Amino acid sequence: MIRSLLLLAALTGGTTALADIPPANSRQCQGAATGSACTTDDGRPGTCVATMVSRPDYSAGFPPKTKQVEMVLCVASASAKQVSALPFALGAALMFLVLGGLVASRFAARGRREAATAR
Hints:
Elements (H helix, E strand, L loop, with lengths): L1 H12 L23 E3 L5 E13 L7 E12 L9 H33 L1
Antiparallel strand pairs: 1-2, 2-3
């Protein structure tokens, strides 16, 4: 009996409620200030803007009423700064060059050691 109750609680308690799903273009501006540059869900440059959105309000029971809350969303704009991945790509390329040089120097040192012991 207890096992079946635990199984039922695990199966129904772990689901995502519809109210927990954030609106489109909200994740990029989470924790960011309004006016910050961002990229929309479809890859366009945008700006973080404070916007009023409707959310279900279950505080008065079921069926829920709606309430307006302010959220910071990424809104596409032509004048927004383009968010570039170039600094990340350059940093990654530099890291691979350094790691490649370290690996090559280890192989060269191993080859010199083996040549010295073979004499």
